[in-house]
UniProtKB/TrEMBL annotation:
InterPro entries: Bact_metal-bind_prot9, ZnuA-like. It comes from Streptomyces fulvorobeus. This is Zinc transport system substrate-binding protein. GO terms for molecular function: metal ion binding. GO terms for biological process: metal ion transport. Residues 126-174 have a biased composition (Basic and acidic residues). It holds the Pfam family ZnuA. The keyword Signal applies. Belongs to the bacterial solute-binding protein 9 family.
Length: 348
């Protein structure tokens, strides 16, 4: 774990005890406002949680995110004002295992209506490569549908998983699980349903509206799932290479093979052995593109692409929306991701 990113638990507790008021951008809502019928004061940890709260909460919530646009979520350092202000929230939505500083602060805040999105679906372990559909062994799926695909990453899977389980990096979920559930529209819809139910409980006066908004969002996510399933069904290759293994759930959902250069940790430096393996994977599986993301450096992607003669492109893990994002919200950026994958995989 990169301890420089975290605020010690003692400091968190101290800030909460002092009751420092307000989040940096959330000073207009407090308990008194709620008594007067104002909007539900919702605090979220980072963009995927913010999007859910805004879509489902609609006009009845005032949503603030602890992570500003453009800030890599795992680098987040909370201010004492933010830590103290968490205790003033009516409702907190976060994803445990992504931002330990947030995890600690949320625990200390003790807000009754606190929801951990990780508890609303099932988390799984993913390494650098995933290529099976649900309830089907990885090897069987590959042999039946794509006999030409090589799974060079498989022989390193146990090593990577063991390393991940022993590493307390901020980007890793509980027990070495992959926290990137929002990149699978089906799992994200499961989370959305849970968030909707929790908002109904937190603010029963507007329960009908929360239920209606939840249904609308789940419908959008269902359409997105269908678009991915249809758009990636027939492709020249099933293998894609990415600097950050954030797309394990997505790959599993749509029968793809994710080959991550550096695994779950977005800042980890790949080993020489892994780089050589990527070269082999790219050649054997006719990969065309090395993907990188918007909030981190593209240096590794460009280096690998130059060495292998591949192209580079953006596959956005949607941890934040900025002016560089290829879309204004979750749905639009995911549609851009689909287009990028179709191009890289040779969709027919």
């Amino acid at each position: 774990m990169n301890v420089r990113r975290l605020i010690p638990t003692a400091a968190v507790a101290g800030a909460v005890v002092l009751g420092l008021t307000g989040l940096s951008a959330c000073s207009s809502s407090d308990a008194a406002d709620r008594e007067n019928g104002d909007k539900l004061n919702v605090v979220t940890s980072f963009y995927p949680m913010q999007f859910l709260a805004e879509e489902i909460g609609g006009d009845h919530v005032s949503v603030e995110s602890l992570t500003r646009p453009g800030v890599e979520p795992h680098d987040l350092e909370l201010t004492p004002r933010q830590i103290g202000g968490l205790g003033e929230a009516d409702y907190i939505l976060y994803l445990k295992g992504i931002q330990p500083a947030v995890d600690d602060a949320v625990t200390q805040a003790g807000v009754e209506n606190t929801v951990d999105a990780a508890t609303l679906t099932t988390l799984e372990k993913h390494g650098s490569e995933v290529g099976h559909e649900e309830e089907h062994p990885e090897e069987e799926h590959a042999e039946e549908e794509h006999p030409g695909e090589k799974h060079a990453g498989e022989k390193h899977a146990e090593e990577e998983h063991a390393a991940q389980e022993g590493d307390e990096h901020a980007h890793e979920g509980e027990g070495g699980t992959d926290p990137h559930i929002w990149l699978d529209p089906v799992k994200y819809a499961e989370v959305a349903k849970g968030v909707g139910k929790s908002l109904e409980k937190a603010d029963p006066d507007h329960a009908a509206d929360y239920a209606r908004n939840t249904d609308a969002l789940v419908g959008k996510l269902g359409a997105l799932d269908t678009a991915f399933e249809t758009g990636l069904k027939d492709t020249a290759t099933k293998t894609f290479i990415t600097t950050h293994s954030a797309f394990g759930y997505l790959a599993e959902r749509y029968g793809l093979v994710q080959e991550g250069i550096a695994g779950i940790d977005p800042e980890a430096e790949p080993s020489p052995a892994r780089l050589q393996e990527i070269h082999t994977v790219a050649k054997e599986n006719k990969a065309t593109t090395v993907f990188f993301e918007t909030l981190t450096s593209d240096r590794t992607a460009k280096t690998v692409a130059e060495d292998t003669g591949l192209k580079t492109d953006v596959l956005d893990p949607l941890e934040g929306i900025t002016e560089r994002s290829k879309g204004a919200d979750y749905i639009k950026v995911m549609e851009s991701n689909l287009t990028a994958l179709q191009k890289a995989l040779g969709a027919k």
